[in-house]
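Hi again,

Forgot to attach this to my earlier email, sorry! This is the prediction with adenosine-5'-triphosphate bound. I've pasted everything inline since the attachment limit keeps bouncing my files.
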Amino acid sequence: MFDPVKIKAQHVDFFYGNQQALKDISMDIDVGRVTAIIGPSGCGKSTFIRLLNRMNDLVAHTVLRGHIYLEGQDIFSPAVDPVEIRRRVGMVFQKPNPFPKSIFENIAYGLEVNGYRDRDVIEERVVMSLKKAALWEEVKERLRDSALKLSGGQQQRLCIARCLAVAPEVLLFDEPCASLDPISTAKIEELILELKKDYTIAIVTHNMQQAARVSDRTAFFLLGELVEMGETQHIFTAPKDKRTEAYITGRFG
Amino acid sequence: MRKIKEFVIEKLILLSGLASIFFVILIFLFLLKEGLALFKITSPFDFLFGKSWYPISEPPQLGILPLILGSLLVTVGAAVISVPIGVGCAVYIAEVAPLKIREVLKAGIELLAAIPSVVLGFIGMVTLVPLVKNVFHLPTGLTALSGSIMLAFMAMPTIVSIAEDALYSVPKTYKEGAFALGATHWQTIWRVMLPAASSGILAAVMLGIGRVIGETMAVMMITGNAAVIPHSILVPVRTLTATIAAEMGEAVVGSEHYFALFAIGIVLFVISFAINVTADLCLHKKQS
Ligand SMILES: Nc1ncnc2c1ncn2[C@@H]1O[C@H](COP(=O)(O)OP(=O)(O)OP(=O)(O)O)[C@@H](O)[C@H]1O
Ligand SMILES: [Mg+2]
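Structure tokens for the complex follow:
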């Protein structure tokens, strides 16, 4: 039977120390669609998507209650290897974070840690993922240059390419355009629409238009709670909750 | 009133700054004056590459090659031991250790740094020297190896604390980036953290070695002090520093021997200076 739900969160509470950042979040992320997460600063958007690939394991003194399932498997069960989860669920961060290595090595690194050994295969996948991330034309002459010499927008596309190279099933974007100019932003949005064909995507954004443009479904977070979730069209035209309406029309937040 | 106070304090600080520079220059000039005097009698080549050091024979033979090799052997030995252990320890403290163990380890390493070298030398003499003697069935345990092990202990605190700092200041985003690609913790440390911290770690190593090469007391006590060209790490050696410390008291002021000891001082100075400059360059490269 075809299951449209890729990731399912059930009654998730999350604490940093004794400060509660998420309160009873339950939501589904559908396979092959783009889910946008919106909400004012500090409402727990990053915290939530960082749970989906167990990135918050890196933060000390945190407590999680509830369950998150990836294709029905509880990703926090003790039997699950977080490394395995992160291979299936890739992530692109708010601030581009290429490694201080060459453009080529930035992508090759991910492949090598995922067990690729054959140089030809690695080279082929580097080229392929740069093309997919719409960066190939700009960097094909200088693959051996340091990635830190690229512009912010190029760095972010490199981070996307790096992520695509290892072929995850899900892509998480945490405000991927926050530090980019409008042209780079447009490129990345185009890219997301393109990637939608092959991946399940969740994107955190502060930009309402961006959420409206790229997403199929939208979730609105407020103070650690999920206020409302639905088809993007509905959320932006006929929100059920007064608070959602206030937020998307810019009357608070 | 307040202005006068400010003025006086400012000038005092300036004065103490100038004084320290003045003394450094003074010491350096004195060293040069006394040391270079040797080269009126012996050529620099014979001094640096002469194979025998018999300062009180007639005429004196003042070749310091055995001493340079002695210092080199002990230092390289100490580096081979202390660098992997020190960097490993830094990785453990910075990345792996639970918070409590981390605190304990850091305190322990500070303690190690606080032990006077003569005490370490003494402990080495009664524990390490017999051990080396028995393990390798040697006529004496006073060897380059014993010196290297002892000096490794002295270099370790410097290496660990500076390398740990370097690892700690690697941006967290690199680690997150690697983890998000499905790298294991070890793959992240080995391929991302260590390369990103490499210049700081190199500086840590250089400063550790700098400490070792200038060390005198402990090496004098446990390396056996035989001024012959060493052919293995299991024989007694004599270092540059130990030679100065041991012989300065008996050298006749104004004799060739006396000048030669100062010339050794210049050699040591140049080596330490080169090491410190290298370490500095590494640290600056990291910042830019
Ligand atoms: N590492 C952390 N340690 C302690 N508290 C944290 C940590 N990260 C986030 N928090 C807290 O958790 C709450 C939610 O933060 P989160 O980063 O998830 O918000 P956000 O919705 O992503 O905000 P923004 O839009 O500004 O990125 C905030 O109150 C924040 O202070
Ligand atoms: Mg955030």
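Chain A touches chain B at residues 53, 55, 58, 60, 83-84, 86-87, 90-91, 93, 95, 97-101, 109-110, 112-114, 159, 162-163, 166 (CB under 8 Å). Residues A 16, 21, 39, 41-47, 59 surround adenosine-5'-triphosphate (ligand 1) (CB under 6 Å).

That should be everything now.

G.
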